[in-house]
Please model this.
Amino acid sequence: MKSTTAHPLDAVSVDEIPAETVLRWHAAIADELRAAFETVLPAPRFTLGPRLREFEAELAAYVGTTHCIGVSSGTAALTLALRALGVGPGDEVITVCNTYVATAFAITYTGATPVFVDVDPETLNMDPAQIPAALSEKTKAILPVHLYGQAVEIDRIRAAAPGIPILEDAAHAHGATFGERKCGSLGDVAAFSFYPTKVMGALGDGGAITTSNDELDRHLRQLRYMGQAGPKHEHQELGYQERLDEMQAAFLSVKLRHLDEQIDGRQRVAARYRELLAGTPVVTPASDVTGRHAYYMFTIQAPKRDELAEFLAGRGIRTQIIYPKLVPDQGAYQDHTARRIGDFPVARAAGERILCLPMFAELTDAEIERVAQGIRAFYKAD
Ligand SMILES: Cc1ncc(COP(=O)(O)O)c(C=O)c1O
Model:
């Protein structure tokens, strides 16, 4: 990497194009982030204080729910949301096979069994047509993932499992919409991750749960702080130490103000990739099929994917494969109980071809062109 100046915020290479980076965004909003830090430093509280309450109110308003509960990670958000839905040993939760392991681990942590289904070939999101075969009298919830930032077909999922609560995994989908409605407000409850490289990330770990259900909100607040309902040292149930801290909440309030600009930037990059890759053998991702795509990832399907990735790496262009192995194929699920609906032919075939191109809002036109030129050169498409 050819990098330049002393301060790490400026250390953005001119030669190498990273697959993802927050450095440029942080450089642009550094003064706001420093000001946020200054509000927390002299404050008497570092957890469950005013910055967290502010951020929770702002995110709930943005998403369109009545409640938001800040927690320590996306994994905690999923686990607590499942617990609040009453999921436990003997229950089943239907989810997709092509997600980050945390989606399934959260189910397993509760003692319930994940039931893995295949995905739609166009969006790679949960295929609602798979749900009837996955349902059983033990089904306690459905856990679809808005993969890469594109909303799932929530209306078809709900119709396939009437009356069964839906927990959205919105870890990729900050600001994405289904029609006009924001991801995070589509199901009964939703889990966000603020892992730093997400569309809206903290400067460390963080997560949040959104819901418009008052009882879930009450229970989730109790669960995230050691099962306390009221007075300190009175623990009503087995809870967790999983709060979002004041510092991260203050940083996230800054980032939330810029989220829509970030998505506009990601949409600009996606549109340009589409133009420049037309006529090549790669399939670009379905665009805005269900609503506004947040483009956490711009995932193409490419013949000779591994050779292409290597070729691009040789030109200083970093890519990634999200996710390289299906969750039910992971070692963890050879030991733990899971149910599999079929052998996931769609996700398995896509898994051989998916490649996530560099994607962040500050990619320059010249960089986007360099990526596209690399792909065109690989396929000799010029
Ligand atoms: C789809 C999905 N679900 C859940 C998570 C877990 O979030 P976290 O890393 O904040 O625990 C992530 C991200 O890592 C994710 O991508």
